[in-house]
Design goal:
heterodimer; A: about 230 residues; globular; B: about 230 residues; mainly alpha; 9 helices; about 80% helix
Chain lengths: ~230, ~230
C-alpha cells in the first residue's frame, strides 16, 4: 500500500453522493406527500417504505459479506476483508432499523409489539449472527487472523440463515398464529413509492459502504505510517 | 496413515487423555444436573407446567453442558503447543475436525446416558416404552448437529484471547435450528403425538447435520492455518 492516495475517496464518490441525495429526497417526498394512505391502517402504513427497504438491505449486506468472505479466502487480498467488514457494519445498522420499525408498525396494525412470526424471528437471529461476526473481529488483533476467521464465519452464517428461516417457519405453521401478517392490496402509486424507496435505500447503502471502506483504508494507512515511524526511531 | 485411522487416532488420544483425569466429563455432568436443579427452583416441579417445558429444559441442560466440553476440545490443545504437533501429523486436516467431533460426541453421549434418565426420575416423568427409540434418535441427531457446528466454531475461537466468552455468543445464533427442532421433536414424542408430527423436525435436524458436517470439509483448513 502506498501513502499518497490517502485522501482519494474513489472515482464515484461524488456521483454516488448526489444520486443518493436526490433519490432519498424524492422518495421522502413520495412517501409523505404523494402516496395515499393505506385504507385500513392509515398514516402508519407509510413505515413499510422504510421497513421493507431496510429489510432488503439487511439481507443484501449479509449476502455481500458472504461473497467478499469467499473472495478473501480465495485471493487473500485484504481489500475484500475491508468490504466485508464495512458491509457487516452497515448490515447491523439496517437490521436494527428493521427491528425497530417492525414493532412500531406491528403495534399500530396488529396491536402487538412483537410476534414470534418467522420473518421477525429470522431477522432477530440474523442480527445476532451479525453481532457475532463483529465480535469475532474484535477478538483478534492480528489483521490476517481477523480477516480469515471472520470470513469463515461470514460463510457459515450465510449458510445458516435459510435453515433458521425454514425451521422457524415450520415452528410457526404448527402453532396457530394469533395475528396473520396478511398483505394488503397495493395501489399502483404505493408500488411506485416502494420501488423508489428501495432504490434510494440501495444507493444509500452503497454510499455508506464506500464511506466505510474509505475510513477503514485510512485506519490501515495510519497503522502503516505509525509502524514506519517506529522503525525509523 | 489414511483418513479413517487418523480420525480414530485423534478420538482415541482425546478419550485417553480425558479418562486419566475425568475432569471435563465430571464437570459437564455436574453442570447439566445443576442447570436442571436451577430450573426446578425457577418452575415449581409439582405443577403441570413442568410437563410442557420439560423438553426445553433438557435441551438447555444438554447445550449448556455441551458448550463447556466443546470449548475445551481445541483450547486444551493450545497448552505446550500440542495443536502444532497434531497439524504436523501426516493426516488430512479434515480428519482432525472429524476426530474432534467424534470425541465430543462420545463425551456428550456419556453425559446424556447418565443425565437424561436422571432428569426423568427427578421429574417423575413416565416415558412410554414406544417412544424410547424415537427419543434416542432425536437426542442423537440434535447432539450431532450441535457438536458438528460447535466443534468447528470452537476451533475458530480457540485462537481468541477469551474463547470461553466468544464461543457461546457465536455458536448460539447459528444453532437456533437445532435447538428449535430438537425441542419440538422431543416435546411431540413425549406427548405421544403422531409420527408425522415429529418426523418433519427430524428432517430439518438431519439436513442441518449433513450441511454442517460437510461445510468443514471446505472451510476447516482455513481455521487451522498457523
Amino acid at each position: 500500500m502506498t501513502i499518497h492516495n490517502i485522501t482519494s475517496k474513489g472515482r464515484f464518490h461524488n456521483i454516488l453522493a448526489w444520486a443518493t441525495f436526490i433519490a432519498v429526497s424524492v422518495s421522502i417526498y413520495m412517501i409523505f406527500m404523494w402516496v395515499p394512505n393505506e385504507k385500513v391502517q392509515g398514516p402508519v402504513s407509510k413505515i413499510i417504505y422504510f421497513h421493507i427497504s431496510s429489510a432488503w438491505l439487511a439481507f443484501f449486506a449479509f449476502f455481500l459479506v458472504m461473497v467478499c468472505s469467499v473472495a478473501y479466502l480465495k485471493t487473500r487480498d485484504l481489500k475484500w476483508d475491508v468490504i466485508a467488514y464495512s458491509s457487516a457494519e452497515i448490515g447491523v445498522l439496517f437490521t436494527t432499523i428493521v427491528l425497530v420499525t417492525g414493532p412500531i408498525w406491528g403495534r399500530a396494525s396488529w396491536n402487538a409489539w412483537w410476534t414470534w412470526d418467522h420473518r421477525l424471528t429470522t431477522t432477530l437471529i440474523l442480527w445476532f449472527i451479525y453481532i457475532a461476526y463483529l465480535m469475532i473481529r474484535s477478538s483478534f488483533s492480528e489483521e490476517e487472523k481477523k480477516a480469515r476467521f471472520s470470513a469463515v464465519f461470514g460463510i457459515i452464517g450465510f449458510i445458516d440463515v435459510p435453515i433458521v428461516w425454514m425451521s422457524i417457519r415450520w415452528w410457526r405453521t404448527i402453532h396457530p398464529t394469533v395475528v396473520s401478517s396478511g398483505g394488503f392490496a397495493m395501489d399502483p402509486r404505493m408500488v411506485a413509492t416502494l420501488l423508489v424507496s428501495l432504490l434510494a435505500f440501495t444507493l444509500l447503502f452503497f454510499y455508506l459502504l464506500q464511506k466505510g471502506i474509505f475510513i477503514l483504508n485510512i485506519k490501515n494507512q495510519t497503522q502503516i505510517i505509525k509502524q514506519k515511524i517506529t522503525e525509523i526511531r | 496413515m489414511n483418513f479413517f485411522s487418523g480420525i480414530s487416532a485423534i478420538i482415541w488420544k482425546d478419550l485417553k487423555a480425558e479418562f486419566r483425569t475425568k475432569q471435563l466429563l465430571s464437570s459437564m455432568l455436574i453442570f447439566a444436573v445443576l442447570t436442571l436443579i436451577i430450573f426446578v427452583f425457577a418452575f415449581d416441579p409439582t405443577k403441570d407446567v413442568v410437563r410442557q417445558v420439560f423438553p426445553g429444559m433438557i435441551w438447555v441442560c444438554i447445550v449448556f453442558a455441551g458448550v463447556l466440553g466443546v470449548n475445551r476440545s481445541f483450547v486444551s490443545e493450545k497448552q505446550n503447543d500440542c495443536l502444532t504437533g497434531i497439524l504436523l501429523a501426516p493426516i488430512n486436516r479434515t480428519a482432525i475436525y472429524y476426530g474432534k467431533t467424534g470425541g465430543n460426541l462420545i463425551y456428550m453421549a456419556i453425559v446424556e446416558v447418565i443425565a437424561l434418565p436422571l432428569f426423568a426420575v427427578l421429574f417423575n416423568y413416565n416415558i412410554p416404552a414406544a417412544s424410547i427409540f424415537p427419543l434416542i434418535l432425536v437426542v442423537f441427531l440434535g447432539t450431532l448437529g450441535f457438536i458438528a457446528v460447535g466443534t468447528f466454531l470452537a476451533a475458530l475461537t480457540s485462537n481468541a484471547r477469551s474463547s470461553e466468552i466468544l464461543l457461546p455468543i457465536i455458536l448460539f445464533p447459528v444453532m437456533v435450528p437445532v435447538i428449535l427442532s430438537a425441542v419440538q421433536a422431543t416435546g411431540a414424542i413425549l406427548s405421544g403425538a403422531q409420527t408425522a408430527d415429529w418426523v418433519s423436525w427430524l428432517k430439518i435436524l438431519t439436513a442441518f447435520d449433513v450441511i454442517f458436517l460437510t461445510v468443514p470439509v471446505l472451510l476447516f483448513e482455513y481455521v487451522l492455518e498457523v
